[in-house]
Amino acid sequence: MSRKPLVCALALSILVSSKFPQWGQVATPAALPPLANIQVNQAYPGDNPAETTMAADPTNPKHLVAAWIELGPDPTQSQGVIGYALTKDGGGSWQSALLDTPGFNLTFDPSIVADSKGNFYLTCAGAVVDQQFFLHESRLFVFKSTDGGKTFFKTLDLQPVRFADKPFLAVDPATDALYLVWGDILPGSHFHFSVLFSRSLDGGLTFTPFQEISHQVADAEGAIPSVGPNGEIYVTFGNLDNKLWLNRSLDGGVTWLAKDVLVNGQIKQPPRLLNGDVDNLEFAASAVDRSLGPHRGRNFAVWEDMRFGSPDVLLSFSDDRGASWSSPVRVNDDAVKNGADQFLPFVNVDGSGAVHVTFLDRRTDPGNLTFALYLATSTNGGLSFGPNIRISDAPHPPGSFGFVGDYNAPAIAGGRIHPIWADGRFGDSEIFTASVSLLDFDEDGVLNDGDLDG
């Protein structure tokens, strides 16, 4: 959700009808062509879901669970709810449901991960707001599923200092330790956000008292945690001064750097509202190479930037645990300074060390309104990227409400990436995914020949 001020943050969070069925299934064809776009959520009139996240079961690469925020057309209702869905056939068909958070008429900012045993953990923020969007209560939740994502039970119900925002989870696949970061407003901060951290070593049943890990940065926001190959924890976050920062822990979250590390201090941010009144918060994303390849341990960060004349996706990397960073490279391969928006990037690293960046892109629309989801892959550790691949079956408009979320977090499993995003191809936004081979994008037998349209 949006970050500042609080009233504006809540104004972008909306509603779902409590009359929805608890479970629904989206019908899909028996045989799917390569890059088929599959609807994940069960649609209802006027819905506008967004802000997507997905995790894969390490014990079964065809078992995936996704989550998102369900939005609707009337923001005065001040309601939002987390939707989630599971598939056990690699994304061909989905069962969806709504997360039960009684007493809170607004839940938002979902993030989901899976541990080595196939348990799923979902975090989100919750609030009680009135029709004028004034905040009356705030919560931070963590839920756990031990039945493959069919049901979730609450393990953490934390009352924040003032307002919990954008929680995000990471899991150490070697130990199943859970790491949780979020934004909150601490006493004496003059209503500026700080990044807080907590961990669980018992499968999410208990969490440690929070630590503040953003030290000298005012309005730290949009934190993303990731885990290195030796258990290092890296957290990237931005601030309102158009800078990207990092803090790290080398002892499982017990201690952190006393000073935040500057990843990039020259970000030229795009407009807050893109064409079509699409809300654009320019959050960065980050990941670590855990493979046994030549770039094992390399950190990657991606973000939006206008330094080349129009909104592009840039990537930088670090080989010294985040202490210093490479000059950024342009991920999108359309013409420089062509005026097309590229936004909402996310980065994943697969088991071979290949770097995959997904993002929304308006390059094919001269009016710079409709967008498609694209994938760019680097096989040389982020030095350069191959031809961008369009994953959406066509460019589509944003939904009727104009909110596409703050992030789209895919999953990688079994040699495939599963991008997830929202678009308005049916008028209202709906959630879509695709199952993409990491060796042969279009599955024509020629390995990544780049013959799909860019």
Structure description:
The protein is an all-beta fold and 454 residues long. It has one domain: 6 Propeller (Neuraminidase). The chain has 1 helix and 34 strands. It has a 6-stranded mixed β-sheet with strand order 1-6-5-4-3-29, with no helix packed on it. A hairpin with a 7-residue loop joins strand 12 (178-185) and strand 13 (193-200). The radius of gyration is 20 Å and the shape is globular.
What is the topological layout?
Elements: H1 6-11, E1 23-26, E2 38-39, E3 50-57, E4 60-70, E5 81-87, E6 94-98, E7 106-114, E8 120-129, E9 135-145, E10 153-158, E11 165-171, E12 178-185, E13 193-200, E14 211-212, E15 221-227, E16 233-238, E17 244-249, E18 261-264, E19 273-274, E20 278-279, E21 285-288, E22 299-305, E23 312-318, E24 329-330, E25 342-349, E26 355-361, E27 372-378, E28 389-390, E29 408-409, E30 411-413, E31 416-418, E32 420-426, E33 428-433, E34 436-437
Q: What characteristic shape results from the CA principal axes? A: globular
Structural class: mainly beta
How many discrete structural domains?
Answer: 1
The top-level CATH class is Mainly Beta
Average pLDDT figure:
87
**Annotation, overall tally of beta strands:** 34
- Under the CATH scheme, which architecture would be assigned? 6 Propeller
CATH names the topology as Neuraminidase
Compute the CA-based radius of gyration.
20 Å
Strands of the widest sheet, in order across it, are: 1-6-5-4-3-29
Report strand %: 35-45%
Task: Determine the fraction of residues in helical runs and give it as a percent range.
Answer: under 10%
The number of helical runs is: 1
Largest sheet: 6 strands, mixed
State the assembly state of the protein chains: single chain
Ends apart, CA distance between termini: 30 Å
Low-confidence stretches: 3-21, 73-78
